[in-house]
Amino acid sequence: MREWDPDEWIREFEKRQRRKKRTRIPPKAIRGIMQERPKPGRGGLEPWEGEEDL
Hints:
This protein has two helices and no strands. By secondary structure, it is mostly helical. The longest helix has 14 residues, at 6-19.
């Protein structure tokens, strides 16, 4: 079994991190998502709860 070298591990880790590209969500898409009404079961409402229960 190979001996564990922390420096080598850090180098490999940083290489992997650089390789990952985050997908950028355009501002228009974010605005559309923010304007949607929360779906039942998300955003604090359970499927059986209506807004009138609040």
